[in-house]
Amino acid sequence: MLDISMFRNNSDDIRTDHDKRKIPHDNINEVIQLDNEWRKVRYDADILRKEKNTAAREIGEAKKSGNSEAINEVIRKVSNIGSEIEKLVLLADECLSKRDIVRMKVPNLLHPSVPVGEDDQKNTLHSIHGKKIEFNFQAKNHNEMLEENGWVDLARAAKISGSRFYFLKGDLARLEMALQVYCSNFLINREYVLVQPPLMMNKKAYEGVTDLSDFETVMYGIEPDKYYLIATSEHPLTAMRMDEIIEPSELPIKLVGISQCFRREVGAHGLSDRGIWRVHQFTKIEQVIICHPDESWKHHEDLLKNAIDLWDSLELHYRVVNICTGDMGTVASKKYDLEAWLPGAGEYKEVVSCSNCTDYQANRLRMRYRTSDGNSAVHTLNSTAVATSRALVAIIEQYQNKEGKVRIPDVLRSLMNNQQFLEPIQ
Length: 426
Prior knowledge:
By secondary structure, the chain is α+β, with helices and mostly antiparallel strands. It contains 14 helices and 16 strands.
């Protein structure tokens, strides 16, 4: 969430940002109102505490002089002060709680370079990578290839788990594991620390990294223990330093997380979302950086470069887009997406999201670094490296040949016994 000083001193900047997003100012106004009420109640409580302290001194002086009448008079005056202070403290806590609940609904301030637009059709092209494949045959979509080669069993997964789950089998399962190893090592070689996080988080930690009012509908809750299955390893890796003061010498903290991810993926989806593209459980390798505020925009470009270099090494065709105001979520200040070309579907689809969240998550998590002038919020950034199921789809569709075989990308062959093609399951 935004630092409260923004509402007190720079509320016009927040209003301008809301205008870009085409959202009303109601929450801004409510935060400011509740903050004023909170400060007024705290001021009133402080005045009463001073009166109580003054009365205590007067009683002490009266006792020294033996003036019992003066003692009784002071006691009569302050007899209700203690209970009044308690009421004001409770009221202050209530105002503070209400203020911060609303404050968490106010989105991050957008970077000036974010394009203005109402939806994803207004995202702007940043760059294009790799050669767009032109087949001399009718390209198949990944669903056809999966069915023909027996690499996925959707029906039996649906029988035991429901729709949008799958059994991954044979060489495609081996290729998925090769992707995990390759992508993890790729980032380890760039001085990222590999972390396997918990797959569940409590509500307090989850509220620190995302807007649950937006995200809770796509998450799985675990009852009766009140946990959430993680939707991405970004969330536990970012929340890992919650409520901590980080020494500046530790920054930047660079992590590569590998985990299963769980999403409900509610709503209607198109034909190209079927198969293993949009599923309830998948594996993702994620980049996370916690850094000094002055360095976050440099690190944002570094994260993007890592993703580009990784996907270039897989020799896949894709484009990078700059996400516009209407397609931006609550938490990020700026976001790039990588969209892979799927020739079987005839469209580009998102495979990587790369975000700078500035101090928005850190303020929620109370995650700060030590300075000579006090403690200040760090900046947090995240980017997909590879969501393996989506990378498999891109490989299947771009590396297919006329005979219906799928060639294995060169950089993955050493992890696949040096074979050239994925073998079907007979």
